[in-house]
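seq as requested:
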Amino acid sequence: MTIVQALPGNWLDTGDNAWQLTAATFVGIMSIPGLALLYGGAVKKKWAVNSAFMVFYAFSAVLMVWILWAYNMSFGKPWFNTPSFLPSGAWIGHPCPTTSSYNMEKEAIIPSAAAAMPALGYGQATMVYFQFVFAAITPIILLGAILGRVSFKAWVIFVPLWTTFIYSVGAYSLWGGGWLGSMGVVDYSGGYVIHLSSAFSGFTAAAVIGPRLARDRESFQPNSLLITLAGAGLLWLGWSGFNGGDPFTANADAGVGVLNTHTATAAALLTWTLLDVIAYGKPSILGAVNGMITGLVAITPAAGYVNGTGALILGIVAATIPWMTWNWLGKTRLFRKVDDVLGVIHTHGVAALVGGIGTGILADPTMVEWYGTKGDQFAVTGWWYGNFHQVILQLEGAAFIIVYNVIGTFILLKLIGLFVALRFDDETLLIGDDAIHGEEAYAIYADGQKIPVLGD
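struct tokens:
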């Protein structure tokens, strides 16, 4: 017979614990298999295996650095303060575990709200897992900009270093008790920490690594739109955990976050599709997926702060502006020169700016019920409700994330490039998966054997 002893103080709330673990798993599914399938289907057949496998590698690598030091750097005891030219406050957490930041047997806390929030009702292990899946998907989103040429060796080195030195700073600054959050910049579930960060880091990486082969840039048809749609569907539904889990309890605001997420996403998908029909005469499957992503991204910083009308507005605007930057600015010299394969700068970067600044405009102070408590200490008031200063704060937060990610990613890649090549050689780029992994995505021939076709 097994005897189960109650935890000291009987603080475990099984409902909240179950929801946080479930929400975290939904977010994990967005990466594996969600983005693995989306990327694997959206690229040429010769890149399907490599694109999907790099997703699985990143998910695993981030977990290793997360439990060893990166969680502490993102949510632990303050380590370094900001430079003198920035507002004072913590810059990043100490990498060594502390009792307050990483004790698996203790009740979870979030340093940035520890003075105001009640006990969360579940263990620190649940919080570490929940925050991990957010950290994991960020470099995976970045990957969408550099598919089809980034060296696997360089990717192996880049992911843990980028998580340590780039992601952790943004996460701590906004979520872990750092200076941006203390100023009043808000990011409900990762519009800045995840999407703006990955988009501008990805665009920088695409510029540093260089473009795909000319023949691939000219013709890069998806090898399976149905697989792409399967991945996109997992991404969309998994987002319920993304925005529904960030109240940290199974409360009413979790439901608001989920409903707002799907409202904005549906509006964005329909808007992008309509714009495609108006401009090109046909609805596009890839266009619809792009619209879906822009809606998901834009509602992420706002999900629990805006009401239903705000979510609908964000969805429409989030599709319209990235559609214009993709189809109009995408034809300018800068965007033609930088080979952002899946347009991450548009679908994640521009959409994140729409969502972050939109939060500053549309945040409804009556909406937030966070950590199981409803009160003024968590309210965010947007310009529409009389507080223009929130827009300024959101712009300042976005500026820091963009500048830090561009500079940090550039330096990191240049350093990695001193030791390994950042891109495959031309022969490997011509062959793809078979040259890199000795495997191909599909055995579609009569007896299953592979017939090599250069440039397939």
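Confidence is low (pLDDT under 50) at residues 1-8.
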